[in-house]
Write the structure tokens for this entry.
Amino acid sequence: MDYLLDTRDYRCPLPLLMVKQALLRLTAEDKLSVLLSGDSDWREIQRLCEMYLCHCQYEADQTLIIRKR
């Protein structure tokens, strides 16, 4: 299933916490698209994805695509 998480209106660390909660619910077939603001640090989210064994891909439109490994 595909999910969308819009974190553009939030400042750190809230987007990171929102992504963490979403990662706990992902299954192997799920895809999570995270919309980021310009000041969001996607590298922190990428490290979180590695901890939860997820693949993370940053897109040019400030979207982060996350899939469970």
Notes: Residues 14-25 form the longest helix (12 residues). Helices lie at 14-25, 42-51. Residues 54 and 69 are 5 Å apart (CA to CA). Strands lie at 2-6, 31-35, 54-58, 63-68.
